[in-house]
């Protein structure tokens, strides 16, 4: 099939490459010419494992192209909308400007019978508005939310655990379902379940999935707060409750909380939209979810001050990790960046490293010094804080770092380090909601 993907960011670039690998002829379109220049040369414009290989495969097969000209979408019959829907400045609501700009730019190139497929995450009701907007072109609309995770985006796109088609129940449903079944023939053949819903349900499935994940993380972080106040250990607690299959262990990792370009803005957009339509009370709990999450960042800063004798001012603090999660260079709403900013504001001298996110961080945070290696980052540190659980950080040998630092003190912001090993190497180790032990080593 001939497919266009409008918007080639973290979602769209991966989606375009994955569709080409699946055998379709794909053109990816973006208004960002730098991104298109990179992608056209088969270079991933951001770090995402597997994306360079997928781009290479798509280009080698002659099935993938990128352009900044929307007119290049004219030969496609299926058009995915994958542009950003960030939080509006000064409000919790989603900014839909890019979605409507993309649809309006695409409209002159739509042919009767084309299928426009929304993939961006939007407030319920957006799809219906777009369907009305494109009606004069005789193109049709579907909403097909995306559930991929950054860091696993290519694999999640090739092997989704479910595929949701939002299709208006107006007599054309079977025909449109067949088109989408052809788009997703490869994962469907592998057994990916397909769910067909009304447009509104498909839109709501997406935001409610993210709201549930955010709630699960804030739940365990609330328990971390209780554990901190009572001497319990939240990791043991998560292991114990997670063995109940109704609860499940995944997404019960307490720490500095969730960030990224989706979970935070999606729960806020859901609250804003629910307020707007008069059902704000239904999701009022998400305000607490957001607040618990943001408190984790402040908590790390207070813990740092406590470990440094009452204040971080004038202290050298080393941060391991800048991206919002490992295997990604994405720093959108990253807890690590907020913590770096708060520590600098409190007068600490902050030095940070990350395997992939330094360049992105440098552009938005200038009060921090950046270093290329763990060793140069921790040199003469009064305190080390792990904020993103990159494998290379989790595997650090604590005794190799001890001679480099001014004081062997570490906060494990993701509860991923082997506490006993760090304690045995003489470090003052503090996790998030974990038992407090005294160092046992030299
Ligand atoms: N990043 C992720 O893992 C996932 C994102 N989503 C949703 O997908 C959407 C996109 O997210 P990201 O890719 O992360 O954002 P992003 O900011 O990385 O990418 C958005 C892209 O759209 C482009 N764009 C903006 N206006 C355009 C226009 N008129 N025509 C063509 N291109 C245009 C931008 O230049 C940018 O490259 C959002 O709604 C997000 O919530 C959904 C699932 C996963
Ligand atoms: O809509 C989206 O964009 C995507 O948002 C999330 O994916 P992503 O943002 O890539 O990352 P997650 O793996 O969900 O992690 C989000 C944040 O939660 C944090 N987290 C995750 C799990 C956990 O147990 N504890 C925890 O603090 C991570 O460190 C990270 O900061 C969802 O998992 C995807 O299904 C969804 O498609």
UniProtKB/TrEMBL annotation:
InterPro entries: 6-PGluconate_DH-like_C_sf, NAD(P)-bd_dom_sf, UDP-Glc/GDP-Man, UDP-Glc/GDP-Man_DH_C, UDP-Glc/GDP-Man_DH_C_sf, UDP-Glc/GDP-Man_DH_dimer, UDP-Glc/GDP-Man_DH_N, UDPglc_DH_bac
Reactions catalysed, as given in the entry: UDP-alpha-D-glucose + 2 NAD(+) + H2O = UDP-alpha-D-glucuronate + 2 NADH + 3 H(+)
Active site, per annotation: 262 (nucleophile)
Domain UDP-glucose/GDP-mannose dehydrogenase C-terminal: 318-419
This protein's record includes keyword NAD: yes
Alphabetical UniProt keywords: NAD, Oxidoreductase
Classification via PANTHER family: UDP-GLUCOSE 6-DEHYDROGENASE TUAD (PTHR43750)
Annotated TM spans: none
MF annotations from Gene Ontology: NAD binding; UDP-glucose 6-dehydrogenase activity
Any Pfam family matching the protein: UDPG_MGDP_dh
Protein name in the entry: UDP-glucose 6-dehydrogenase
Annotated family: Belongs to the UDP-glucose/GDP-mannose dehydrogenase family.
Metabolic or biological pathway: Nucleotide-sugar biosynthesis; UDP-alpha-D-glucuronate biosynthesis; UDP-alpha-D-glucuronate from UDP-alpha-D-glucose: step 1/1
Biological processes per GO annotation: polysaccharide biosynthetic process; UDP-glucuronate biosynthetic process
Binding site for substrate: 147-150, 206, 251-255, 259, 325
Positions that bind NAD(+): 30, 35, 85, 121, 150, 265, 332
Annotated EC: 1.1.1.22
